[in-house]
Amino acid sequence: MPGTVLLLAASPVGKGCLVDAASVLPVLAAVPPAVLAGTDTANVVELADPLEPQAVLTRLRAAAAAPGPLTVFVTGQLQLDRRQRLPHLALARTTPSTVRYTGFPWHWFREELRLRAAGTTTLLLDLHADAETWGWLRGRGLECGAGVAVYGRVAPPAGRRRVAAPTYMKAIATVLRSGGRPGPEQLHQTALARIAGEGEVGDLVLWGAGAGPLPGAAPVPGAAPVPDVGAGAAPGAGVPGGFAPAAPALPHPRPRSGGGTPVVPGGETPGPPPAALDGPGPRTPDGPVDDPHARITAAVQTGDHPAADALAARLEQAALVAHGAGSEEALHWSEVRADLAMFAGDAERSCRTWMAVAAARLAAGQPVDAAPVEAAVDRAHHQWGRITDRSRARDLGPALAELRGRVPGRRQGALDHVREQLRQLQTQG
User: Per CATH, the architecture of 3-209 is what?
Assistant: First the structure.
C-alpha cells in the first residue's frame, strides 16, 4: 500500500522569525518519496510558509484520511496564544498578538491524527520556541496523541536577532539521501548524533509513541517527557461559513480522574476489531481487555449504530451516578454519543447533544473560550448545517444562536452565519 508524506515548513515573516524553516524543503524534496515514507511508493504533499491555518488543516486532514502509512515532517517555531496559553505552530502572518487566529494550534495535529490506526503514523519535528514558549514546554512537553510515533527536537531561542537553521531536519534529509531507509528511531538517533557534533542539540528531545519513550529507546541527555496538553476542535471549511469541526471524538477517551471502567489510551483495538458489540474485547499478551471504546468502534464499523449508542448511554449513565453531571467522565460519554449520532446520520440529535455538552461545561464554570467549550459549540454549529429537515433546523436555530452569542469561537462571523441561515430558514418557511 502506498504511503503518504506531508512536508510542512512554516515560520513568520519579519523580525519574529526564529528559524529559516523553508530552507529545509529543497533538501527534503530531493529525497525520493518512497524513501521519505519508508514504503514502496508514496504521495508527497508540500506546504511552504503557508499563510492560513485553514490551509494547513485541509492538507493535514486529507493526509490523515489517506490509507496506508503517514509520515509528517514539521519544521518551524512554536508560540503560545495569549488567552488560552496553548502552543501554536507559527505561520507566515503570525505575530505575538495574533497567534490565536493566525497560528496553527498544536492540538489540531492530535485531533486530526487520533482516529488513525496505531502504528501507522510518524511525526518528525524540528521546532524552535521563543523564550516564553520554551519555559512553558519545559514543564509540560509536547504531545501528539496516542498511537502516533514522535521523533525530533525543540530548541530554545538561538539568540537575539539570530535566525536559526533547521539542522535536525537537514540531518534527517542528509541521512535519507545517503541511501537506505533506516527505521524512525535509528534515523532520529543518527540525526541527533550529527547535530550534537555541532553543539546544536536542544534541551527538549522528543521520541517515542504517544506520551512516553519507546521500549528500548536509549536515554537522550536533556530529554523531557511529553504529557497530554489537552485537545480542542479545529474549525474547518466543510460547511458554508467554514465551521466544520476536527475529526470526531470517537473513540478517543479523556484521561480519567477517578475509578470506574478502565480505559485503554487512544481506544485503539490491537488486531482485528471484535465482530460484535457483545463479543470479547481486544487482547493483550496478558489476556483480554474489555475496552468499551473498541467495542463501540467495532459496532459502528459493522453498522450497528443502535448498539453502539446503547453501550455509550449505559456508560454515560454510570459516569453520571459515579461522578456527577458536569464531570469529565460523564461529558466524555456525552461527546461520544454526539459523534455516534453523526456517524448514524442523525445530524439533529448530534447537534442537540453537542449543545447540551457545551451548556454543561459552561454551567460547570468553564470559560467561554476554553477549548472543549469552543469545540462543542463548533461541532453543534457544524451538525446544525447538516440537518436536512428545514423545520427542525429552524426550531434549533434560536438556541444555537443564543449559544453562539456566548461562545463566538475562533472564526469571525460565526454568530452572523447562524443568524443569516436562520433568517433564510424562516423566510423559506
Answer: 3-Layer(aba) Sandwich (3.40)
